[in-house]
FMN-dependent oxidoreductase (Nitrilotriacetate monooxygenase family)
Amino acid sequence: MSRQLHFNLFLHDTGHHEASWRLPESDPHANLSLAAHQHLTRVAEDARFDSVFLADSPVLWSDPGRRPAGKLEPTLLLASLAATTTRIGLIATASTSYNEPFNLARRFASLDHLSGGRAGWNIVTTAGEAAARNFGLDEQPQHRTRYERADEFLEVSTKLWDSWADDAIVADKGAGVHAVKDRVRAIGHRGKFFQVEGPLNVPRPPQGHPLLVQAGSSENGREFAAKWAEAIFVAQPTLAESQAFYADLKRRAVAAGRNPDHVVVLPGIVPVIGDTPAQARELEAELERLIAPEFAVATLATVLGVDPARLKLDEPLPADLPTEDEIEGHKSRRTLIVDWGRRENLTVRQLIGKLGGGRGHRTFTGTPVQVADTIQHYFENGAADGFNIMPAVLPSGIEAFASRVVPILQERGLFRTEYTGTTLREHYGLPRPANSLELISR
Amino acid sequence: MSRQLHFNLFLHDTGHHEASWRLPESDPHANLSLAAHQHLTRVAEDARFDSVFLADSPVLWSDPGRRPAGKLEPTLLLASLAATTTRIGLIATASTSYNEPFNLARRFASLDHLSGGRAGWNIVTTAGEAAARNFGLDEQPQHRTRYERADEFLEVSTKLWDSWADDAIVADKGAGVHAVKDRVRAIGHRGKFFQVEGPLNVPRPPQGHPLLVQAGSSENGREFAAKWAEAIFVAQPTLAESQAFYADLKRRAVAAGRNPDHVVVLPGIVPVIGDTPAQARELEAELERLIAPEFAVATLATVLGVDPARLKLDEPLPADLPTEDEIEGHKSRRTLIVDWGRRENLTVRQLIGKLGGGRGHRTFTGTPVQVADTIQHYFENGAADGFNIMPAVLPSGIEAFASRVVPILQERGLFRTEYTGTTLREHYGLPRPANSLELISR
């Protein structure tokens, strides 16, 4: 079989467009609704998607005035979804800066057991002062320090998952021995950030480790991804930028001693689908009109690290913005936005319109065949191993993609018509990791 | 309607008896099985139980050799169970010593939203050096310090749940306003243990606050319960001790300015049911024979704070055990066991047999009518508002209780035949708490 596309659905209540909740069709309480998330996940599973994904930060992210801001904790929401799905992977975001490794490693091990090997962890270091202030800090740890902690956090987590040998449990009723004692081992970790004795109180996950996912594109983020990540979500607005990122990540993975095929690169795209090109463009324009500019300006100012008053709706971005080095979070997002605004000479209003749709991700607007063509073009020209699908409006956007774009790609032999594996790793063609403690102790 | 009994099912894979996993009927992998937990919860819901409950500690609790030791993280497991149940309450244990309030308050708020108002939190401070060593500490915080932290943890958590007003969300599509900005408020908490800015990133839970549950019976534990707990799990081996505890707790609740009816006391009982009294006693004896004594001695020694070598199977407990004041955890459990052993002049082997069945909880052994009679007697004589049902063997123990004991109590008008409410608070007859920040800001 030829190389196959991979698809992840980025769950986001009424859609990734800022204003999607305001459409007549939208349920403005979908963000808190299990039923709404069950429906989205069922559509993706029926279309044989590899996974669904939830972003997260331990802070009230956006202004609650502007759009549905409350977010259910992702590992819990995905645990609920595990009960009503059978094959699709379940990827939750969680922060290495504001969790303890024992607790988080255990939650992901539990999700992997509950789902029969379908758990993934999108590892984030959590930018922003506001999050820090929810955890006893007056200011956030530096970008580099956050990534150092993330690196040690992963070291501890993988050791904890490996603290039970795969053959530890014998369940010998007659002898009264449930597990072989020396096959469950302390890890005795003592590092710069953490001291964790172990073992974990959950046996090794069905997948060995949950799938490790990453999304930061800063220099620190890319180095971290090259070392740890098995799937990478990226935001690149043009084909050329996607190709450059793809090549860079694969090269870094090789430099880190890894097989580049075991690092799956998934650019985020916003498919906007119409029966005709004009109809698709009209849908895009309708959404831009619904954005409330005062809220959007405040968000943009936060990412750029400037006073909102300096951003004038009908003027281009100010010339003297802080550089990527001068801000402590959203580094790659900031640079992507600034470059985009300057390259296309956009006003702040125009830039907000573009960002409202995809927040820096590429919008693929057109008929089903046009969208499928663009996906295939990226896939066959060194820009993607698959895509992180971010519909502007949900559930209609994923229903349209699943029913109209996916069949075209299946006919072309580029996407599965049935699941061939049962675990998330199997869907993405990734190996089950060997047990690191096993190698030492035998 | 007369005063009604309440029932909680304490979930524990193959049963609360140490050796239950060794029975021919038992699935020795039930501890990691979502299907096994779904079955138990369905039986309890079909019998109109108020709730199910999961104990927990962030450490490998028992020797993995002796019995199934791996435990799925309770908030995730209950989130899964929320998806396949509609009425029954879902109570998870979580530690105030080894979590951050922002994260934990959010998980319980999320569970409450996911389940439509069915979440409960069994608040524990987590005894033991082993747990401390999973979180960067060489020794555990003192008992008193743990309870001080727990108290502030609850203060922060309740403020976070109240940080969204009940009427914050207006979802006005036309005006583009999702929430009224000043109805979502920072909490600005600065205390001895925590600094948390807030607001929470989840709207107020359907129940206002999840049901607050507590189980420690030490002096610090009782004071904490009187202040915060709305349902209390207790372990008392005799009727007289249960009556004394019940009266003490209600008195302390009144002293704390609370309505004593809003503190529901639920003793743990181990129902062992047979067609005849002799058959029930035979089942009890069969389980005692299956206990592996070397493992049980090690567990007992940990609770008592002594070297396992000092416990001789066929001799009584040593005379010079450490006192309750001299140990830092399991304080009330230790005293209950020591008093029991001395009162009945039990050998270590006999004591282990009793503890294997109920770990200090009362065993109700007999025919269905005898078990129902004992429950009614406790309920009507100031010893209980209901019971925490801890079957020695699962699922058979809860199936027998649900099909044979519950109908007798329903016929006697002591237990509901249909749910009358939809939330966990409604099942237990507890009020939805007012919003504390609301009172201040209006």
Chain A touches chain B through 78 residues (CB under 8 Å).
